[in-house]
Amino acid sequence: MNEILRKQLLTILESGNERAVKDFLIEHLKEFSEKIQENIVTLFFIEALEQYVSNGQQIISLQKELLATLEKAEKTEAALNDKKKELDAKEQLGL
Amino acid sequence: MSFETFQQEERRREDEKKKEEAAKKMQKRTLVDVVKKNKVELAEEKRVATQSAPEHTAAKKGMDLKSIIHDKEKGELFKKFLQKNKLELEDENGAFARLLAKELQPGDVEKLENIRSDFVEFYERAEKTGKFITPEMTTELGTLNTDFQQVINQLSPEKAVKVYRQQLKEMAISNTDDFDYFERIERNVEAIARINTERDYLEKKINEYCIANKISSEEYQKIIAIEESDERNEALIDFVRKNWGEGTLKSLARGIDTIFFKLFSRVGTRKIGGDLTRDEILKSLANIQEYKKKIAQTMAESVEGLESFRIAYAQAILDESEPESEPRTSLIQHRKKFIENMPNENEILKDWQEYKTSLDEDLKMSFDEMDNHDKENAKKEFLKHEKKKYKNKIKRTEGGFLYSIFKLLFNSLFTIDTSKLN
To answer: In this complex, is the C-beta atom of B140 within 8 Å of any C-beta atom belonging to chain A?
Structure first.
């Protein structure tokens, strides 16, 4: 790693600003040695992988929640229809 | 002898051995020849015979030692595995060195067999995980993570996959923090396979329901049909926030629960539902139908145009839980701790003064009295000690991307002007 690149990265790292570090690495990726480049892209890969999994899990749990809510809604609807039929029958019989 | 030379030499010896064996078959050994063998020679023969045996049993558990050494890629990795685990190769008199020199001793084969068995386990785990990583997969990951997309754009998905597969093997055979990265990848790749299976099942169920009930979301369809990507994304995020936000879904579920409660709860032995009037029943039915429609539409949206949905969901819902403008306390603490653990030149120079004092006490000689050679050695020893100190600091603090990057580039970033060490 050349000295300018090293100093710039160190300054950004010291700021603790993750966004700035990522932007710097993306912009200067090709300036690192091949081995370091491979390690950097692997770190980005791990992050993307974890984000994808987290997103997938959230959507699945949402879909499950929706299906369960829908099931409950159907059960409620059926019970309401039964009540309505019961009232209709009572009315027809003049009760 | 270098490892490469050993491999070439080994192949040459094998060819020669085959020729010799063929020649031997042509010769008949006399009884005298056999009798002449003393007990030591016989014991040696027995030992050599047992040394070749594990190759057959090893084959049952995967690659044998011979095939590992003869394969360029596996051979290199095996060598690294031994080095990283501080096994044998560093020791000139170790079992691996003796194997290369064809001077195995009793017990060596068992030792190498144990190492081989560990190596094969990690290698095969890395290969298995690597097979799931495809160019299509990396492209799909890029749709959710723009940082990753920019990285992939600089490499190409094919090249990236090649890098990841190789890195996986390197990380799997490592006994350092790299192994944690391997396990993170392995765990998440396995999770993707599980998610895909579960998602297929849920999508099938949702699709069946939506088709049977003629459910579709026109509004959503219109949005995902917008050609201009920025405009589409913005509309999607608004849509998802409005329709999929936790508040919206909770209010739907609460609405259903209220009606459900009215119908099925009891006061003593009496069902509350029994007291509902016709108007109340009709109103509840209308509400339930409206809720059902909204839920079903949302379900349809989650499977129609899934990719757009994922992106919008990631941005609208997940970002909502971690707003940039108000970083969580843990995030602030995390950054603070990271900065505290960064090597600091003043602190290093302070440590140097303390180190010099300890040297004076131990050696009964001050640093200034040392000759240049000893001075340089003392500086080297001190820097080694400091690097270890900061590495341990980092190790003790778990962290996100910043730590990972810092750990990765530690050796390049940790430098100090040695002329200041006086």
So the answer is: yes
Residue B378 and residue B359 in contact, taking contact as beta carbons nearer than 8 Å = yes
CB–CB contact A70 B299 (8 Å)? yes
| Range 185-224 of B in CB contact (< 8 A) with A | 185, 188-189, 191-192, 195, 198-199, 202, 205-206, 209
Q: Which residue has the tokens 């180190």?
A: B355
Domain boundaries, chain B: 3-126, 133-199, 216-321, 329-420
Nearest to B412 among A6, A46, A55 (CB): A6
Closest partner residue to B295 (CB to CB) among A6, A57, A73 is A73
Strand pairing partners for B271? B266
Instruction: Decide if pLDDT at A89 tops 50.
Output: yes
Query: Bridge-partner residues for B270, per DSSP?
Result: B267
Residue of B195, B310, B252, B51 lying closest to A73 (CA atoms): B252
Say if the Cβ atoms of B412 and A1 lie within 8 Å: yes
Phi then psi for residue B93, to 5 deg, are -100, 10
Query: Which residues lie below 8 Å from residue A6, measured CB to CB, with a gap of 6+?
Result: B412, B413, B415
What was the pLDDT predicted at A9?
A: 86
Phi, psi for B271 (deg, rounded to 5): -75, 135
Q: What are phi and psi of B94, to 5 degrees?
A: -75, 170
Cα separation, B181 vs A44, whole angstroms: 12
Helix (H, G, I), strand (E, B) or coil at B210: helix
Please give the radius of gyration of chain A, using alpha carbons only, rounded to the nearest integer: 30
Instruction: Give A-chain residues touching B197 at CB under 8 angstroms.
Output: none
Q: At residue B358, what are phi and psi to the nearest 5 degrees?
A: -65, -35
Contact A40, A23 (CB under 8 A): no
Residue with tokens 């002007």: B417
Q: Tell me: the pLDDT tens digits for B197-247?
A: 998 999 899 888 888 888 877 788 888 888 888 888 888 888 877 777 777
* pLDDT at position A48: 93
Write phi, then psi, for B245 (nearest 5 degrees): -60, 155
Q: Is residue B162 scored above 90 in pLDDT?
A: yes
Q: Where are the beta strands (DSSP E) in B179-292?
A: 266-267, 270-271
For residue B99, give how far its alpha carbon lies from the nearest alpha carbon of chain A (Å): 30
Alpha helices by DSSP H, A1-95: 3-15, 18-28, 34-92
